[in-house]
């Protein structure tokens, strides 16, 4: 959920730089947040955004408008995050097995937004979500994956706007 509080000065400086960036730089930054070219071009083309919240709303709207093929392309560009370096071997094995089962069943990497989840809880959250979502029907999981991709994209945009207006390095 987006905060109704006004943006911090850092957000505004980052947003101003994003709004002023050349179209190719803005599109490249956005492609680092969501792998759909049409989505990135659409969000970039509607600049300038008056607030970060308006940018996030436009990103959501463009995400909801992705065709099936565009969603497939965006999901195909996703990769599963590695486990934390201090994860026990059993947890690494469970994660690898779960991710492989998910990819085999649904044909794309497992996507989940961990925005707001404490680092110590992330591995458990991912493992539980994989177990739960493996039971979904393919179309049901497609809806869940699309929603998680939108949430992940929002977090990446916030990170990118805070970090730099022209670097596509989005951390999650």
TrEMBL record:
InterPro entries documented for this protein: OHCU_decarboxylase, OHCU_decarboxylase_sf
Top-level taxonomic group: Bacteria
Gene3D superfamilies according to UniProt: Oxo-4-hydroxy-4-carboxy-5-ureidoimidazoline decarboxylase (1.10.3330.10)
UniProt GO MF annotations: urate oxidase activity
Domain Oxo-4-hydroxy-4-carboxy-5-ureidoimidazoline decarboxylase: 19-76, 86-158
E.C. numbers: 1.7.3.3
Residues in coiled coil: none
GO process annotations (BP): purine nucleobase metabolic process
Presence of the UniProt keyword Oxidoreductase in the record: yes
Protein keywords: Oxidoreductase, Purine metabolism
SUPFAM superfamilies: UraD-Like (SSF158694)
Protein name: Uricase
Lineage: Bacteria, Bacillati, Actinomycetota, Actinomycetes, Kitasatosporales
């Amino acid at each position: 959920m987006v905060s109704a509080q006004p943006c911090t000065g850092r957000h505004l400086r980052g947003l101003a730089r994003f709004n002023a960036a050349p179209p190719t730089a803005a599109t490249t930054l956005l492609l680092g947040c969501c792998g759909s070219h049409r989505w990135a071009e659409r969000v970039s083309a509607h600049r300038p955004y008056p607030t970060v919240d308006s940018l996030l709303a436009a990103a959501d709207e463009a995400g909801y408008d992705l065709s099936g093929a565009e969603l497939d392309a965006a999901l195909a560009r996703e990769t599963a995050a590695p486990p934390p370096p201090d994860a026990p071997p059993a947890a690494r094995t469970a994660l690898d097995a779960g991710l492989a089962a998910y990819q085999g069943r649904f044909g794309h990497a497992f996507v989940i937004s961990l925005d707001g989840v404490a680092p110590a809880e992330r591995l458990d959250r991912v493992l539980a979500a994989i177990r739960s979502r493996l039971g979904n029907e393919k179309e049901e999981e497609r809806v869940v994956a699309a929603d998680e991709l939108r949430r992940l994209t929002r977090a990446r945009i916030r990170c990118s706007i805070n970090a730099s207006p022209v670097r596509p390095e989005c951390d999650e």
